[in-house]
């Protein structure tokens, strides 16, 4: 009697196993017929039988489930695609993915590409919150791809969801994320396009085959500085200046010679009005890149913001020593020079009608005209490029009117009219 009961139990178990396979196979056939919503319902009904499945059946179950949620090639439903990726991940947890692992990997990549495309669409449409959410969930399913966490944080910042951004940036810091990548590139001879390869070996194979040329290795810049700066700026936005300074201090302690980080630190110091610290940070960058006029220009901006006109002029002129055509430096020097115009006019207006006052008036008038003459060369340099500053053009027009240079004034008036349409 006992033997008979065991036999009945075994037969019952076999019947359940056949039922499971039949239901999964039915769901797979529905997927093949492209009835994905129906397939999702069918595969969900099998979930209650998971306890009776063996390793092979569970592998099969998750493979079919993944395909059901992956859907067709035009599926852009991020929730379904994420469920598909999760199912394909679980394929490898059973039977070591021996039977369906290779196909699951390919399908998973398809789902991943679709999610990325959907997130990019959201980002381009300035729907930053859903973009951040999709990219973060993508990161949780592919934790080795930390760049998804970085881009999720960036979207959170753009969406002004600062709490979420700080959370994501904190995770990146804990992971020691820098974003530095080594790219192996070569130019496709047929298309002329520069293409990237996942490894040096693969790139070299294409070069040896003759289809590509000009192999190069590119190392991307660290994102550590940007992350530290964004963390600090978020704290500043929230009025937490001490936390902002602490964030920069910690980052510099770990990476004291990181140029990007030093530049970011300088940006934070400037934002907080810490002029001395700002200059010190930029001076460290200048030591490594002494022929960069932009660095001296930035120091000039910082000095001008702090109200130190003479120091600002010195930095702008240093930038022009390196690059005489640096438009920003030329324009800012002219602006600082012309800034004295208001002071001169106020002095002129304060004078009386005595002979001494009239003599002083004429002296100030000459000083004002000389100021204009001195500013003209800098303004001309600032407007010499392909995209001249319209305010600089307008200023030159007004200056030449004041100087009585009719021909020059008419020329700049024509430029001004053309730019204004």
From TrEMBL:
Protein's UniProt keywords contain Membrane: no
GO biological process: one example: protein O-linked glycosylation via mannose
Gene3D superfamilies per UniProt: Tetratricopeptide repeat domain
Keywords: TPR repeat
One Pfam family named in its UniProt record: TPR_19
Amino-acid biosynthesis as UniProt keyword: no
GO molecular function (one): mannosyltransferase activity
Mapped TPR repeat ranges: 225-258, 293-326
PROSITE patterns: TPR, TPR_REGION
Name of the protein described by the UniProt record: TPR repeat protein
Organism: Leeuwenhoekiella blandensis (strain CECT 7118 / CCUG 51940 / KCTC 22103 / MED217) (Flavobacterium sp. (strain MED217))
Organism classification: Bacteria, Pseudomonadati, Bacteroidota, Flavobacteriia, Flavobacteriales
């Amino acid at each position: 009697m006992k033997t008979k009961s065991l036999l009945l139990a075994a037969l019952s178990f076999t019947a359940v196993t056949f039922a499971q396979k039949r239901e999964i196979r039915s769901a797979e056939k529905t997927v093949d017929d492209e009835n994905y919503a129906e397939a999702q319902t069918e595969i969900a009904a099998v979930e209650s039988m998971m306890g009776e499945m063996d390793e092979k059946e569970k592998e099969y179950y998750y493979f079919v489930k993944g395909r059901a949620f992956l859907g067709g090639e035009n599926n852009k439903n991020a929730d379904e695609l994420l469920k598909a990726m999760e199912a394909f991940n679980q394929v490898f947890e059973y039977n070591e993915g021996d039977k369906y692992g290779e196909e699951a990997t390919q399908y998973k990549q398809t789902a991943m590409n679709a999610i990325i495309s959907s997130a990019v669409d959201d980002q381009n449409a300035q729907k930053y919150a859903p973009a951040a959410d999709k990219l973060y969930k993508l990161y949780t399913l592919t934790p080795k791809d930390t760049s998804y966490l970085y881009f999720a944080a960036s979207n959170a910042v753009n969406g002004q969801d600062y709490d979420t951004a700080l959370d994501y940036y904190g995770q990146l810091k804990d992971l020691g994320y820098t974003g530095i990548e080594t790219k192996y590139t070569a130019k496709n001879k047929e298309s002329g396009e520069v293409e990237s390869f996942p490894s040096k070996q693969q790139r070299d194979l294409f070069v040896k085959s003759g289809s590509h040329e000009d192999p190069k290795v590119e190392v991307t810049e660290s994102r550590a500085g940007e992350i530290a700066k964004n963390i600090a700026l978020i704290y500043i936005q929230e009025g937490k200046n001490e936390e902002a300074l602490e964030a920069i201090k910690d980052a510099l302690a770990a990476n004291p010679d990181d140029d990007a980080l030093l530049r970011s630190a300088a940006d934070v110091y400037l934002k907080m009005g810490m002029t001395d610290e700002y200059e010190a940070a930029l001076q460290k960058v200048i030591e490594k890149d002494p022929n960069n006029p932009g660095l001296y220009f930035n120091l000039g901006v910082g000095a001008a913001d702090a109200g130190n006109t003479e120091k600002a002029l010195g930095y702008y002129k240093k930038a022009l020593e390196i690059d005489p055509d640096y438009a920003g430096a030329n324009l800012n020097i002219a602006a600082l020079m012309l800034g004295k115009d208001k002071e001169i006019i106020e002095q002129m207006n304060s004078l009386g009608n005595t002979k001494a006052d009239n003599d002083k008036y004429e002296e100030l008038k000459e000083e004002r005209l000389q100021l204009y003459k001195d500013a003209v060369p800098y303004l001309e340099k600032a407007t010499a490029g392909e995209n001249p500053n319209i305010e600089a053009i307008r200023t030159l027009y007004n200056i030449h009117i004041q100087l009585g240079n009719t021909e020059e004034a008419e020329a700049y008036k024509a430029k001004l009219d053309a730019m204004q349409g």
